[in-house]
Amino acid sequence: MGELKILKLKDGDDVIESLKEFASKNNIQQGYIKEAEGKIRDFEISAFSGGGSIQNYRDKNQQDVIAINGQITLSKGNPVIQLKISVSRAGLSAVSGLLLSAKAGETLDIAIEKRDMSKMIYA
Questions:
Q1: What is the DSSP secondary structure assignment for residue 18, as one 8-state letter?
Q2: Fewer Cβ close by (within 10 Å): the C or N end of the chain?
Q3: Which residues of the chain have pLDDT under 70?
């Protein structure tokens, strides 16, 4: 297990860009997004919609983050963020998929596990 870090976002912060900046500042070359608590708004999620097609879902309203996971990797020295997310929506339903963009709503705390690649053992 690696070192656990918490990114605290305020209302209106760009989620993806904030994660990239956080990864750079904390020298996270390999990290796992473990969980989040809070809300997002102005978001776009890409998800499978049946029959093999992909549909993008957009919502400007603030919604609760139900679940999140993903990873931080490096490509040509720059952080790359891949997030899968599930958010609430009206009518006791949720939408889940790959997060393409989002802003934090009110507050959003994201837990990131920083992995030390020099200590990784591959079998």
A1: H
A2: C
A3: 1, 117-123
Q: What is the CATH number of domain 3-116?
A: 3.30.1330.80
Cut 0.85: pTM above it:
yes
Residue spans per domain, the chain: 3-116
Question: Could you give the angle at the alpha carbon of 41 between the alpha carbons of 3 and 23, nearest 5°?
Answer: 25
pLDDT digits over 74-94, tens only?
999 999 999 999 999 878 889
Residue type, 9: L
Rounded Cα gap, residues 18 and 109, in angstroms: 11
Among 46, 47, 41, CA closest to 59: 41
Any idea which residue has 């990864």 for tokens?
Answer: 23
| Residue 119, SS3 per DSSP | helix
